[in-house]
Amino acid sequence: MDGLPLTGIRVLELGNYIAGPTAARLLGDFGAEVIKVERPGRGDELRNWRLHAGSTSILFRTINRNKKSIVLDLRTARGRDIVLELAGHCDILIENFRPGTLERWGLGPDALERANPGLVVVRISAFGQTGPLADRPGFAAVAEAMGGLRHLIGEPDRPPSRVGVSIGDSIAGLYAAFGALLGLHQRRTGGGRQPVDVALHESVFSMMESLVPDYLAHGVERQRAGGRMEGIAPTNAYECADGTSVVIAGNGDAIFRRYMEAIGRPDLGADPSLRTNSGRWARRDELDDVISAWTRARTRDEVLKVLDDAGVPAGPIYTAADIAHDPQYAARDMIQELPVDGRPVGFPGIVPVLGEKSLPVRSLGPDLGTHTREVLAGVLGKSDAEIDAMLAEMEE
Fold first, then answer.
1. Record's Pfam families (predicted)?
2. Which residues are catalytic?
């Protein structure tokens, strides 16, 4: 599609799983040509994660949308040489191998710079390319734990829980895409460039607000608070009479007074000891009991109608089914139907919105190696005989 912000930018994606592919997907969403390199035979292991039918998971189709898939065996000299050739025709390279892997293959930053002095190299790993833990492997679960997030998830009287998605990988992917754009900007303005080094645990840590400064300044260690946000009240999830739940964020001073009026407790709204957040936090259990009693006597729709009329921020806790049929998502084209195995399936739209609604998803994550001939012939000018020889070598 012409006219997208990154049209004309070519990205070479090396690696597996979620973080690196998320970074490349974000660039592809806005027009970059993304060439995803996969190993022969199995390809990216994500193809088999949460595989409910067929040979390629919906998870892979989602995270690797708007890309081209080629197969190369990086264990062979021919495969590595082709990567270097491709790098010479690309603007950005994104990889998420364990540190040292590219160097052992002769594909480290020095080799890549020789192949293309203008290439922006983005590296994603568990703990970064330097430091005492650089060589240690690690997935997002470890990064979320060491970044401080896992300690805060769950109920205070139970072991820490996990967020239900690979949030550490996704955050790192966002930072990697941002770093890639910084590299492009530096290239265009003549500034010095260094490889972009994204660590999963640092990406998570960067989201932890004042967690460490509060500890260093005041000795305060934040603890798990369940559905609450520590130090802020009243904000929580509350059950309704129909078995659903809502989140209500009534923690602003003026909002709290409207909130209490709406649920029939103007006495609490007028209570001097509850005028500020610190006083409300001290009485958080009492407030949650009052609010819970009110929501449990009403359906979700009734609760949300009263609070909306009062200007109190509140919303339903959605399931996948709720999202799939929500008019707000639909109005902004955030659920887009694309064909999978002959039937239409709704997939997430593209964020951020440019204009009034999501850009269209151009293609889902491709079958393994679909674009090998197209890329090697079109980008590198390889002949059919050369491509046939390479493919035959990978089948041996």
1. CoA_transf_3
2. 169
